[in-house]
């Protein structure tokens, strides 16, 4: 039985050992006191994420770190099942094509160069680079003014921080919704060349605002944590950093597998009794898929960072119908970001003791709160 999350880590890059020293499917107590299950192996995780008998509807899925279910708001397709999910997903897939993401690469390179040009040692790499790079990119893609980035970054963090009072979390969500609702109305009145404007003919204002919240949050939070934590990991593994430029794409995939920053919110609730890993998941019980544990399960020497390994099948972007919509954009941002950062500053090093780097352990998206570096 796991009584509560988060569980203390002994290494900033490894999932807690307790998650690995147990059966593939074991008991977990959720934040509201009910009992559910935790899955820690790759095979069983893929089953949960691809089986339509497991639902991701917000009103029935429990969280290990928040004490309440959350009804799915209009447009919040991440917390819906087909066919509702399918309708939104098809509309957005047309906005996030591989071709369109590749066309963004020159602009991503330009933003990266501007951020690196502005950096002087010592600096907090999170504030100077890891956060503003994906934040600026998603703002331009969606049509959100980057001048308001401090407002939406702060409110995005507060919305999902379990350590913050629930009233403050709700107020942050309301503030972000109000801001984006007004923005969406502006797009409808005067469409531009951005994703939100491209959807105004297919969705109403409430739906489009719900989508905007999810895309704005997911589009900067996960990649920012990967850039920050990934830099920390590479600085602590100089042998692997030395191989980065030989195959940047492969290195990005290995960092995704090795770090697996999405740690707590990959949950599904059984719509009927389901046999899984020798256990029976009863109808109405919620299952947490531990992506960090699953990504350390099927690979040889899984606890080693090896940027030359084959990482085919890793679950860092999920699996099944809810697999990350923006994964190609995230890959481009990381490939460009890591390559440019260590080309420009090959002598970069931590400016503090590694044990003094603060970690966002309690959040659903794991990473470094700051990363003091110098060169």
TrEMBL record:
Keyword Zinc listed: no
GO molecular function: heme binding; iron ion binding; monooxygenase activity; oxidoreductase activity, acting on paired donors, with incorporation or reduction of molecular oxygen
CDD domains linked: CYP105-like (cd11030)
UniProt keyword terms in alphabetical order: Heme, Iron, Metal-binding, Monooxygenase, Oxidoreductase
Recorded superkingdom: Bacteria
Family the UniProt entry places it in: Belongs to the cytochrome P450 family.
PANTHER family assigned: CYTOCHROME P450 YJIB-RELATED, P450, PUTATIVE (EUROFUNG)-RELATED
Name the record gives this protein: Cytochrome P450
